[in-house]
Amino acid sequence: MSTSSIPSLTYFQGRGLGQYSRVLLSYLGIPFENITVTEISDALRATLPYGQLPIYRDGDLILSQSSTIARYIAKKNNFMGKTLEEEFLIDQIVTSIHSDILSAFSNPTEEKLTKLYEKFFGSFEKKLQEKGYLVGSSVSLADLYVYVTFDYIKFRGEAYYSNLLSDEKYPKIVELKKFFESNEGVAKYIKERPETKF
Q1: Which residues of 44-73 are buried (b: 16+ CB within 10 A; e: fewer)?
Q2: How confident is the model over 43-54, as pLDDT tens digits?
Q3: Angle at alpha carbon of residue 183, lines to 177 and 189, rounded to 5°
Q4: Tens-place pLDDT, residues 139-151
Q5: 3-class secondary structure, 193
């Protein structure tokens, strides 16, 4: 368990579900302890609310579930929209990514992912073309989530049929990727991030 006064995120070394909060914290410039493990030991499991990673510790608060962690960090740092309505529109996108896109990776097929990518990334691309942002008039957790998901699919390559997400087909999402990766904190994190398989 971390005794640091700064928040800590514990996850496997790979990108996976920990990537959303790692990139978010880096983008927002929030110092955090990036704790990586190779397995969930019995001692570690005993400290986890549901025996799963990632886990986020912020003072006395311990959070599990990757989307909950990201929402908490975003809400605490004014990155969840400017109104209650915007907050729930952002939440809608985050939930769609977890419940529809990420869940499909457990048994990916080209037919299934073709439909999913066109449905969701097509919608994201259209919103970015029309408004410049996915929700409201400024960048938010929704934009970051779409960027990280798009980038992760590209990283996984053939396993997740990344050829279906061409830069030419989704130019605004590519611009979003460039925007986040030009951020000093994100650029530093990416530079220091180890090479992993997932």
Answers
A1: beeeeeeeebbbbbbeeeebebbbebbbbb
A2: 999 989 999 999
A3: 90
A4: 999 999 999 999 9
A5: coil
